[in-house]
Amino acid sequence: MEKIESSSTHRNRMARTCVELFALLAKKRRVSLCTICGTLNLSDDTARRWIKAFGLIMNVQIRRGIVIVGDGPPGCDDLHVK
């Protein structure tokens, strides 16, 4: 029989994933989805959902499998990266 993950463990894993993804995006500013999936042990669909959620708080988009963090507020089309 499979062990059912407790809600606190799930919450901890989600919080850890959130912090690790934010750190990765803040550090690299351009990173492939493959790198995110491999580094954080996420499926492609899950990584895309996390990036979409991060789009609510930061200017981030996925273009051709590359996640790009731009300057400016969320939803800004200006993706110039320093």
Architecture blueprint of SSEs:
Layout: H1 7-28, E1 30-32, H2 33-40, H3 44-54, E2 60-63, E3 66-69
Antiparallel strand pairs: 1-3, 2-3
Helix pairs in contact: 2-3
First and last CA, distance: 51 Å
Read across the widest sheet, the strand sequence of neighbours is 1-3-2
Uncertain ranges: none
Please give the number of β-strands: 3
Taking all Cα atoms into account, the compactness measure Rg is 14 Å
What proportion of the residues is helical, as a percent range? 40-55%
- H/I helix tally: 3
Biggest β-sheet, characterized? 3 strands, antiparallel
Describe this structure in words.
This protein is α+β, with helices and mostly antiparallel strands and 82 residues long. The protein is 50% helix and 13% strand. The protein has three helices and three strands; from the N terminus they run αβααββ. It has a three-stranded antiparallel sheet with strand order 1-3-2. Helix 2 crosses helix 3. It is globular, with a radius of gyration of 14 Å. It starts with 6 loop residues before the first helix and ends in a 13-residue tail after the last strand.
In short:
This protein is α+β, with helices and mostly antiparallel strands. The chain is built from three helices and three strands. It is globular and about 40 Å long.
Keywords, separated by commas or semicolons:
three-stranded antiparallel β-sheet; globular; single chain; alpha+beta
